[in-house]
Amino acid sequence: MKKLFIKNGRLLDPATGIDGKFDIVIMDGRIASMTPPGKGGKDTGGEGGEGGEGGKGSEVIDAKGLLVVPGLIDLHTHLREPGFEYKETIESGTAAAAAGGFTTVLCMANTEPVNDNGSVTRLIIRKAADAPARVLPVGAVSQGLRGKVLTEMAELKEAGCAAVSDDGMPVTDGGLMRRALEYSTIFDLPVISHAEELSIAGEGVMNEGEVSTRLGLKGIPNASEDSMVARDIALAELTGGRLHVAHVSTRGAVELIRAAKKRGVAVTAEATPHHLTLDHGALKGYDTNFKMSPPLRVPEDVEALRKGVADGTIDCIATDHAPHSSVEKDVEFDAAANGVVGLETALGLVLKLVDGGVLELATAIRAMTSNPARAMGLDAGSLKVGSPADVTIVDLGLKWTVEPSKFRSKGKNTPFTGWKLKGAAVKTILNGKVVYSRAKK
Amino acid sequence: MKLEKKDLLGIEELTKEEIELILSTAESFKEVSERDIKKVPTLRGKTVINLFYEPSTRTRTSFEIAAKRMSADAINISVAASSVKKGETLKDTALNLEAMRPDCIVIRHPVAGTPAMLAGYLDSAVINAGDGAHEHPSQALLDILTVREKLGRIEGVKLVIAGDILHSRVARSNIIGFTKLGAEVRVCSPPTMMPPGIEALGCKAFTDMDEAIKDADVIMMLRIQLERQKSAFFPSVREYSRLYGLNATRLKKAPKDVIILHPGPMNRGVEISPEVADGPWSLILDQVTNGLAVRMALFYLLLGGPKPNYPRERRKPDRVSFDEGDAA
Ligand SMILES: [Zn+2]
To answer: Average pLDDT for residues B255-284, to the nearest whole number?
Structure first.
C-alpha cells in the first residue's frame, strides 16, 4: 500500500467548512483519514500509527505553517494540442498547471483539428494519461467552431468531455445557442459561453474608452459583452440548459448574472486573475502581453468583478491560460494574438487579492476548488474520506517574483513580469502522488 | 541646444519647451529652402530611412527632401501593410535595419504603437510619421508653426478641428500640441466619429459645426475617408458635406479673419469647398512649406552632433530556461 502522510498543516476546505489543523493520510490515491494532529487512530495514520509516519513505505510531508487545500481546478485552459504544439503541449501545459497548484484543468476545444468529435477528445485524454494534472476536455458546441451545426454531444460526453464551448469564438447565431442549451440538457453538459457580440466589438483590439482614444487603438465597448450575456441568460432561462459564462469582464455582465441567479436561472460564471487585477490603463505602452479577449476594462469594472467574486455572483476564478509564441506576440498591436498565460501566476495573484482584503481566503479557495467543480458537475474540489487525493499545499508567506523564463508553460506571454507576489503552491498532489514540489531557495 | 531624446514618437511626450525649441529651429531652417543652393552640410554622412507601410507621397517626400537638404542620405522603403501580418515580424525588420546602421528611421504604419515598438528595438532615432489613429507629431508641429506665424501666438487661440476625429492621428497630435501651448481646442464631428473620452485630452467636443466655429480663430478640416460610409459612420457623402463641410456660406458664421488649415490631401467639395480651399483664409500651402522646415529641424535636433547615449530599456528577447529555479 502506497501511503502519504501530510501532517501539521492548516486544512481549508470551503466545501465542507473545515478550517483547522488536520493530519491527512492518503492511501492508494485516496483520502484515508483526516484527523486533528496526533488524534489519528491506529489504522488511519496518527503519528507512529500504522498508516502514519512510522508506517512502512510511507512518505511524510510536514505541512507545519502551510495551508492544505483541495487541488485547484481551472475551468479555462488552452493546452493548444493538437495542432499548435509550438505554443503549448499537453505535457508543458499540465506541468505548468501542477506548478500553479492545479490538479484539474478543462481544456478548450479550439485546437487543430477542433475537439468536435470523440476521437480528438480521446486523443487528448490518452496523451494526458500520465500528466501531472487531470485533463478534462471541453468539446465544441458547433462542428469546426463554425457556428452552423451542433456537435455530436452524446459522443463527446461519452469520450470524456466535461462541457461544451466554442470558446475563442462566440456562438453568434442565437438560434444555434438556443439549440445547444436545449440539447445539452439530455447529458447535463454545461455550455460555456464566450460572450461577445462581434458586430459590436468590430475591429476593436482593446477596451473602448479614454485610453483607447489616447492610444488611437480601436475599442470594444462593454455593450459587446453585456448584450451577449443578456442573450445567453435569456436562452438558459428559456431552455433550462446549464450556462457558464466564461471570463466575465464588465460590470454590466456581473449585474445581469446576479439578477439571473436571483431568478433561479442555472447560470454560473468565472472571472480571470488578470481581469481582477488590471485595467485598461495597463495598455499605455502598447505591450501586446496586455492584449486579450475580452479586453482589460476600466477600474469600475474591476471593482464590480471583485465584488462579484466576493459575494459569489462570480462563482469561479479561471485562468483563460492562452499561451502564444513570440511569432504571435512580437508584432504590431493590431496583428498580435489575444491572450495571456495564467496557470503559474493565478494562485499568487488571487492570494494578493486576499492579502489586499478584497477576498476572504475561504472565498478565494472556494472559487478555485469547489465552485468550479460544482459548476461543471465534477466529483472534485473537496477533501473527504474516500475521495481522490488531489491536494495542493500552499505557502501563504512565500515571496516570489514573476519571471516568465522560469515558466513551465511554453507561453511566456504574461502581463505580470516582475510582479512581486506572496503565496504559492509548494506541493501539488494528484491522486495521492506528489506531482510538483517547489524547490527551496 | 539639443532635444534630449532618442526618438520622436508623439507630441504627448514633448514638453512645451521642447515644442518651442523645435519650432524656433524650424524657423531658422526655412531660409535654407529660399536659397539658390538649397543644401547645408549639417548631416553629411548620416543615413535616414523612410520606412512607409502606407502610401503617402506627400509626407514621405517632405521627409526625403528635408533629409537631402541637410545632406543626409535618404532611402525610401515601401512595404505593403498586408505582408506584415504573417512571416517576418516587426522585430526581424527592426534588427535587419539596425544591422545596416542607419541613423534615423522615419516610420509610417497603419497600426498605432508600432513606432514605439520599433524604437524599443533600435539604437537609431525613430521618428513617427503617423501611426494608425494615434499620432502624427511632425504634422502637428507644422500646424502649430503655421498658426503661430500667422497669428503671432498660440496661447488663447481658439482652434476647431472638424471631421473624422475617431480615425485621425492628426487630430490627436494637434489636440495635445495646441492645448500644451495654451490654445483652446474644440473638436467637431458626428457622434459616430467622435472617440469616447476625447475630452480627457483637454478639448471640447461639438457635434454642431456652426456652433463650434462661431468664434474660432483657426478651423482645421480633416480629410474624410469616403469608404467610411460603408461602415455606417455617416449615411451619405451628401449629408456629411451638408452637416460638416466647410463652404463659403458656413464660413460666414465664423469670424472674418479666421484661418483655414487642412493636412491634405483634400476631398474638394466634400469636407472643404474649392472656394474655401483656395480662398484668402486658406494656409494650406504654407503648411506644406512649414512641413519641410519642421522635418529639417527634427533631423537636426535628433541627429546633429555626436550620438548621445540615452539610457533606455530595450526589449530583451525571451530567454527560456528550465535549468534554473525550481524543479519538480
Ligand atoms: Zn474566450
So the answer is: 95
From CA A132, how far away is CA B291, in angstroms rounded?
63
CB B187 within 8 A of CB B198: yes
Among B135, B171, B129, B131, which residue's Cα sits nearest to residue B298? B129
Long-range contacts of A56-61 (CB under 8 A, 24+ apart): A57/A1, A57/A2, A57/A3, A58/A3, A58/A4, A58/A5, A59/A3, A59/A4, A59/A5, A59/A434, A60/A5, A60/A7, A61/A4, A61/A5, A61/A6, A61/A7, A61/A393, A61/A427, A61/A434
Residue linked to cell 492544505: A68
pLDDT of residue B304: 82
Q: Which phi and psi (to 5°) does residue A297 adopt? A: -100, -165
Distance of CA A282 to the CA centre of its chain: 23
The answer to whether residues B133 and A334 touch, using CB atoms and an 8 Å cutoff, is no
CA of B252 to the centre of ligand 1 (A): 54
Interchain contact, A332 vs B117, CB within 8 Å? yes
Amino acid at B161: I
Per-residue CA distances from A355 to A74, A363, A428 (Å): 21, 13, 22
Cβ(A307)–Cβ(A285) below 8 Å: no
* ipTM for this prediction: 0.88
Put simply, the answer to whether A439 touches B195 (Cβ < 8 Å) is no
Residues in chain A whose Cβ is within 8 Å of chain B: 95, 98-99, 132, 208-219, 221, 285-286, 326-327, 330-335, 403-406, 408, 412, 435-439
Q: How many CB atoms lie under 10 A from the CB of residue A312?
A: 13
The DSSP output letter for A321 is B
Task: Please say if A320 is a catalytic residue.
Answer: yes
The per-residue DSSP string of A134-162 comes to EEEEEE-SBGGG-SSSB--HHHHHHHT--
Closest approach of B323 to chain A, Cα-based (Å): 8
Average pLDDT of B297-310? 76
Strand spans (E) along A330-375: none
Q: Write out chain B residues lying below 8 Å of A429, CB-based.
A: none
**A322 CA to middle of ligand 1, Å?**
9
A294 prior amide bond cis, ω within 30: yes
pLDDT tens for B155-201 read 999 999 999 999 999 999 999 999 999 999 999 999 999 999 999 99
Beta carbons of A331 and B90 less than 8 Å apart = yes
Distance between CA atoms of B167 and A218, rounded to whole angstroms? 9
Q: With b meaning 16 or more CB within 10 Å and e meaning fewer, what string describes B19-40? A: bebbbebbbebbebeeeeeeee
User: In the numeric block, which cell numbers belong to residue B251?
Assistant: 464660413
Residue A52 near residue A5, CB atoms below 8 Å: yes
What is the least distance, in Å, from the CA of B216 to any CA of chain A? Answer: 24
- Chain A partners of B322 at a C-beta cutoff of 8 Å? 406, 408
pLDDT tens digits for range B19-75: 999 999 999 999 888 888 889 999 999 999 999 999 889 999 999 999 999 999 999
Mean pLDDT for chain A overall: 95
